[in-house]
Amino acid sequence: MSFDYVDYICLECARNKRVKQVPKPEDLRCDACDMKLYRIDELPILVRYPERISINNARITDLSGRKIDTVKINQRIHITADITNNQNHDQKLIYLVQMDSTIPISTSLKTVCDTLAAGKTSCWPQEFQLNMDGDYTAKIFSWKSGYDQIALFKPTNVTVCVVP
Ligand SMILES: [Zn+2]
After folding, report:
1. CATH no. for residue 156?
2. How far is the CA of 131 from the centre of ligand 1 (A)?
3. Residue 125 CA, ligand 1 centroid: distance in Å
4. Which pTM was predicted?
5. Separation of 70 CA from ligand 1 center, angstroms?
6. Boundaries of domain holding 55
7. Using one digit for the tens of pLDDT, what is the confidence trace for 118-159?
């Protein structure tokens, strides 16, 4: 049995929805602003990593921020990384963490709209709770904005092994 779930995103407010894939999908609308939702894997992402924003130390932590390697079923975890703005001006961004697996998961995509101040490092830990054992991949990526899907740093994967 295979499960095919697809992540959709609102380009206006970055809200998202994960739905089961169907042969003829109807138009999905954003719950917040009623704009059309787009499949995240069909957006024409411009791949350009100018190194003006850098990502380091992508990791899994427990809720107190301690780095962990193994995750138990239903354990609440954070996926996080240090994001540095190497520019001398502030940078608006959308920060996204997408949890992927062959296992069906109800909440897979987390998004944050924020501004990273000039020369500063920030992190936006995103909480996940995985209720089946197996291997997952958390992909951390970022765009300038919903309408300007210019990648600000190279997407970075974190492997999450969930054990009983
Ligand atoms: Zn919206």
Report:
1. 2.70.50.60
2. 28
3. 22
4. 0.76
5. 35
6. 45-163
7. 999 999 999 999 989 999 999 999 998 888 888 888 889 999
